[in-house]
Design brief:
Layout: H1 6-14, H2 21-40, H3 43-59, H4 71-89, H5 116-127, H6 131-142, H7 147-154, H8 158-178
């Protein structure tokens, strides 16, 4: 049986066939969870925020426009908006986070061959970036989104996104290696 595209499944959901959301959930729940985990560094909040994304997909399914971009762009735009609301609600201009010290619950970290200490240093360096910079790095490097997809999510030009990611990575590199 041929696997349906994200867009085809979402069109079924939009039409009221909510069972089409199950494969989308399977494809995206870990990615969305890791997106939130990299921004909040809080396992419970990341789980709640991930649930909210899929709740909003159901709630706003009729607003999905397949001509406006890919489903992946749309779901990350929803996730970004949820994170913005979360940060505002918690009054986290400078996020108060719990660093990943003794907990090994990051699903994405299982794919890394770095030892745990290097990964901890990377997370600590990410914490020192501005929230906007951290979000761009998470979307691009951990989420695998292309510059064009990120530009559709945050409403900036592709060139501006490239420049901002380059600067964020440069700052991350400086922070990471200054703490060696």
């Amino acid at each position: 049986m041929e696997e349906l595209s994200d867009e085809t499944l979402m069109l079924k959901v939009k039409e009221g066939n909510l069972s089409g959301l199950a494969p989308l959930f399977e494809r995206y729940h870990v990615r969305v969870y890791n997106f939130f985990l990299k921004l909040t560094f809080d396992q419970m909040d990341s789980q709640d925020l991930t649930q909210n994304v899929f709740y909003r997909i159901i709630q706003y399914r009729r607003s999905y426009n397949e001509h406006a971009g890919s489903f992946k762009t749309w779901i990350y735009r929803i996730a970004r908006n949820i994170h913005f609301d979360y940060s505002k609600e918690k009054k986290k201009a400078v996020e108060m986070v719990r660093p990943l010290v003794d907990q090994n619950y990051n699903v994405a970290s299982r794919d890394f061959s770095r030892d745990e200490e290097d990964y901890k240093k990377l997370n600590m360096a990410l914490l020192q970036l501005q929230p906007e910079q951290r979000e761009l790095i998470v979307l691009n490097r951990f989420g695998g989104l292309k510059y064009g997809e990120i530009s559709k999510i945050n409403g900036k030009s592709t060139i501006a996104v490239k420049v901002q990611i380059h600067r964020a990575l440069k700052q991350l590199r400086t922070i990471y290696f200054d703490h060696q």
